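hey so u asked for the seq, here:
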Amino acid sequence: MPPARTYGLALAAFCLLLIPGCGKKGPPLPPLRHGPERVTALVCVQQGKQILLTGLLPDKSQDGGPLVPLREIRIFRLDRGGLSGPGITGRTGQRSAMRQFTRDSRNVATLTGEALAKSMIGRRVVFVDPDPVPGAVPESGQELTYAMTVVDSNRHSSPLSMLVSIRVVPPPLPPSSLRSEISEKKIRLSWEAPASEGKSQTLLYNLYRGEKPEEIPEKPRNEKPLQQPFFEDEDFSFGKTYYYAARTVIEERGSHRESENSAVLEVSPTDVYPPSVPTGLAVSAENGVIKLYWFPNSESDLGGYRIYRSEKEDEGFEVIGTANASESTFVDRTAKPGVKYYYLITAVDQAAPANESARSEVHGDRLPPGQPPAPGNPPRKP
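ran it, structure tokens below
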């Protein structure tokens, strides 16, 4: 073999021996992914003709690092279904569905700035597609498929969320004649069922409350749809104004759809309910003063007590002082020896003006004649 060829083969063999020892051993690392993780827990609900879409925003980036502030949220819609649900199984089926959705869907909204801020409730995003099926909704319904992506301030986009489909059908009619009855402990809302449409579906209801007439929240006051056309709202404050709306609900095959809002009802509960009458009043002349004792009231809005005195048992009572809500005693330091005084008390709340209870029972006593009045502060003014 010629010397040059022998030298070349030896050099090649030497290089092959060196190759396995070059560089880091092990499989190659995947490239780092930038941008937010995908939106999760996407849910669609039909309300009237509109679609309420909610999802859970990511809390980290795809590389596991902290999330960069979001710049925008993009909502995509495909005007047909068949790309989500139990029929789409396995990675191959899901990838095929994603490819079809990416190819055929369109961007129906991009939330930025103020619209983005209003759509976010903590990590939840809420979007209303106001008219996804223009014109009359066909009786057989129209199936739609939605997905979302988010884009951070570095303009890196998340992967597409999982797909969610919904069949939009003609919505039920809303309830009518929404009205309220206000009592001390609750606001009772009631309404009339919508006119029959010739269908045998069971009608349920949701009741909503907002603090502005144009901002009815997405979550109803009731925990689950109501079977009867009324609701008792016990979580309210006197002096505030609330706006209520009721919706008809139809549940089918594990999903539900709602009607449009009923006419919005404005309710401004006013506190006109006095505390209960104080009980257990006792009056005792002790050590140059007359002391009053009673059982404390238990109202959460109790403002205090008013103390009345008269020299007659059945008339002429005037306020001589007050006691705080935390007190259940009063000392009359202005009583004159030898004069019998009669006392009663009332309870007042924190309303403006205050509501006053009916008067307690009357009890009296006197200091012994010739005994000087006890020194002390003048009585408190009411």
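The chain has three domains: 40-168, 176-194+201-267, 279-366. The longest strand covers residues 142-152.
lmk if thats what u needed
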